[in-house]
Structures are given as structure tokens and as C-alpha cells.
Sequence to fold (281 residues):
Amino acid sequence: MHIFRFWGSGGPRLGLDIDGRRFDLSAVSAQFQDLGTWLALSKPIDAVREALPECQQFPAPDSMALLPPIDSQEVWASGVTYLRSKVARMEESKDSADIYDLVYGAERPELFFKALPSRVAGHGMPIRIRRDSNWNVPEPELVLVLSSRGEIVGFTIGNDMSSRSIEGENPLYLPQAKIYEGSCAVGPVIELNDGDARARTIRITIDRDAQCVFEGEISTLQMRRKPEELAGWLFRELRFPTGAFLFTGTGIVPPGSFSLIPGDTVSIRIDGIGTLTNPVT
Fold:
């Protein structure tokens, strides 16, 4: 089952996709009026299951505009959770390479703020590269959708756009390398957590002038940290009354000679969720 947001009569609404059949979940109950209200419930997944018999009375419109599956949630991100990411960060940061080696093996993970919901692009919406960076790459990631209590309610796809030249110059420039207009995309839907901690394959392709110029894939089995561990650290000293989104890190890194340019198209696919595609501007 998948949760999605769409533009309906009166504004944004929540929908439920069951094997390709789409229903207007917001029509069932006020507890599904928006994502934040739903994620604030004590048991969001149980609430959806209990609503199943009734929601099938409310089919979603045949033609509707999908919205980014986020409304009031902060977006946070994890860094250096894959060995490939550690090696790449060490290669680009010659003067501070040891920092990434230490954080990869440390008990405490690297967590950083990524975006407010107003800065998040959805499927088909443009993402951006910084004008003051000459080395820019996408970072395809599995994203945890967390309830207000820190429970992993679902999963979606994320693109954590990064300015490698800026972070490589100095790790303290991480916020500028990671946080700017158009640097974050999520979607297209949220897959509900069914309790199966299966491995997932993350795939990325980058097209330029109708030609694939980069592709790669990795399994989440290669993550050093478990999703529950990352969520637990995020919620240690922070409250998220309407839930939160947490990127889990990337293990796919293009070669140092590659950089995105305007006109590229980035597509990220994760088993069970779908494909997130964004043009680069």
C-alpha cells in the first residue's frame, strides 16, 4: 500500500493506492486531512488498515495532480552510512579525510538538517545545482517517513543534491553544500511499512541529450547502520510533532570527473516504491 498527496477539491488531500487502485483517504476521516495529522496519530499504520473498508467507497479522481508526499515535515539526512560514501568523501577532502573515516566507524552517526518542506521538489519538478560550485552530484537514497513518536511509518525515494567542490574544500561548509533552493527531492509516493525489513536495490540513471551518461545501483544491505538506529538518534533530543523525513545516506557516487549540468535528468528507482525523476536546472 502507498500513501500519496494530490490536489483535489478544496486543496491538497491524502490518497491511498492499493495495487494500482487509488482512493481519497481524506474523505474517510479528519485524521487523514493531511500528512502531519496522520503522522501525529499514536498508530498511523493501524489507522490506515482500519480505514480500508470505508476508503474504498471514495475513489480518487481519474485525473489529478500528484504533489510531493510531504507537507509540514522537516527533512533531515544521514551521512557516510555506506563504505563507498566514506571513500569518496575522503578522496575529495584531502586535508580532512580522517574525519569521514572516524564518523563511519563511530557509535554516533552523522545527521544534518536538509530542507524545509517548502524547498522540497516532488516527482517531475526541477532540482538545481549551485551557481558557485563546479562539481555537483545527485545522491540517491532511501528515505524514512517517521511518525511524531519516531516510528518508521513508511519509505520514499530521495535525492540529496550535493555540491562536492564546496564540502571538499572544508567540511564546515557542509550546510552550504547541502542546503539551498532546489537541493532536495522526494517522492513519488510513500510505501507503508509492512514490517518486512527486506533489502532494497537503489538504482540511478542520469540522462543528457537523450543519452545515459551515468548509472549505478546498490543494495541497502551495504548500509552500515540500521534504519531504526538512525531514527533513534534523530529523535534523541528533538521533537517532531507532525513527523519527519530522514534520508539514510548514499552508496552510489559518480566518478570525480562527472558533474551535473542544466538539462540533465536524474531518475532514481527503489524496489517497491517506484521512480523519482527530476530535470536539472
